[in-house]
């Protein structure tokens, strides 16, 4: 497979996962803004959402104060924002257009339909769309794409590269999502958080469509350490850092086997293995000791390192 | 008023090739038609068959309007065209072989040396080099117009990289999907053998140094190119790689693709980029699209480039007038397809005729394209004609003139129902070990009433083109 083709496939998945995360973030913001705040008016989590998505600077430059309506359009529709849902879907589709010959018809259909629909949505007047509906629409597109991949794609390097893209993007995004909330959890980690703050975490779990899963996994009260475990260490939780990193490792392993590499030849795989091993041996208390923010920052760096190694060994077309 | 040849109706009689469509047309309710038209458009968009236009604002993915009314040829009509086109493709390749070799046709005084060797498309860099099988133009697109039951004229030849073949294939797919009954009732020759025929053609010109099954790729300028869909479509149907310049590099006398498994040798490149961009070391140094060193590998027989660099010298407007001469000179045959009569302003007699008849003629620049810098006499104002007269007198070498052709019409779906619209035809001739054509081509139609301009940039659309089986 051409290195550039592999790169396009990998980025289709990264952009779609990013679009989904953005949609979920917006859902969190929309829900929280409906909750009365302690003083008067309503609570605003918009600021932290901008931070979580790494778009705070760009937004401030364009709009200044975080007004809900502006944030909504900046995160969903704005083409100046490279992480907006529209930007991500457009790029995912453009990457797919470039490598149409390397994906199945259904996968192309899923991406192209998403893009055509978003052009439709853009043409409608603002007053006609409901944010929650839009967020659900994004999640649905993402699910359709994954379903089409799963049902129709050949299990070869192209499939592995796409899944690798998904896994690395998810690992990175989940870490950022948790990071933006760390100040709510800490420093009160030993205590049971106040009702309202826990409510925010519940909203987050709900947006990740993981609230029910959380209850199944732990039951009882929602506590900081359960949440840290669920979103970071629990291998059963599909968005945890552990799951995402394991998935990345799994597909790197598939690639190494597909290409018949000598064991240990692929540096990206070695790095991912080491990272999984570290997570397996980590306890919630240790994360708290290191500092949640510090731990997550380090983790995001490690995932970035894996991505850089993938770039070097597969996507540049030179190193091998 | 000019009488135009209508390919379906002769007075009130339906001409035989269209017999199967008369009932279909009359029985289709307006509502169904609108539904089918919308369905076709949705299909085109869904499949992604769009003509990407960037940098002009608006929707970058434009659809070329598709007219559902097919254009039909009988087997007999087609056979005649086919023989004429193959003959022309052979002559053009013989000409290219000659002018990059001994230049017999110039020495014999049949074509002025100036027109060949000082032509902007003549590539000095390949003079003396003979590509595999002596073929320069592997895909020859011959643009034809019709003015009567048996009158066909060649409007121009495209020896470099004629585009549009994906429309020929997709128009058929969509028609078959929407109107299967029509295909059961009319015996229509299939066109879907084209990609395989193209692959065979390309494989048959692999370089001598290639010892195994040749590896083939299409070289595209990239996804911003307006014809990118076609590039990826053909790569897919042929089962070959679609590469950009940056995916390739040159080493040890061969051309290599960068792949996830390391370098992979490439033997045949079907390039969809111009000569000037192929190799920055040989042509334009500022080109980002090409592969440095590619021409050296090409000239040492490490890789075949299709069409061969330099093939463009055979298809410009000044050379065009000599194609019938080429047929006689190289093949010893009389040309089966006529050229549009052309006056060359460089010749004093022709110049006099042109200046005396400007209001009836179409005057074109020798190197112009896309309808720019031309005068359409019957549609021009007196003032425009006089301005052009001065230009021609100033530099007669730069102009040729042709009569305004009465292009044939075929029935076309328009707002009010069905009406005649002017059409042309581009079949695609493949030249490799064999010379072959799939029975069909791309019919372009001028959708605006009275318009003779079929270019998609000026309101032109496309039609499915049928050749009826015997």
From TrEMBL, chain A:
InterPro entries: ATP-dep_Glu-Cys_Ligase-2, DUF403. Residues 1-315 form the DUF403 domain. This is DUF403 domain-containing protein. It comes from Thioclava atlantica.
UniProtKB/TrEMBL annotation, chain B:
SUPFAM superfamilies: Glutathione synthetase ATP-binding domain-like. It comes from the Bacteria. InterPro entries: ATP-dep_Glu-Cys_Ligase-2, CP_ATPgrasp_2, UCP005522. Residues 70-446 form the Circularly permuted ATP-grasp type domain. PANTHER family: BLR5612 PROTEIN (PTHR34595), SLL1039 PROTEIN (PTHR34595:SF7). This is Circularly permuted ATP-grasp type 2 domain-containing protein. The lineage of its organism: Bacteria, Pseudomonadati, Pseudomonadota, Alphaproteobacteria, Rhodobacterales.
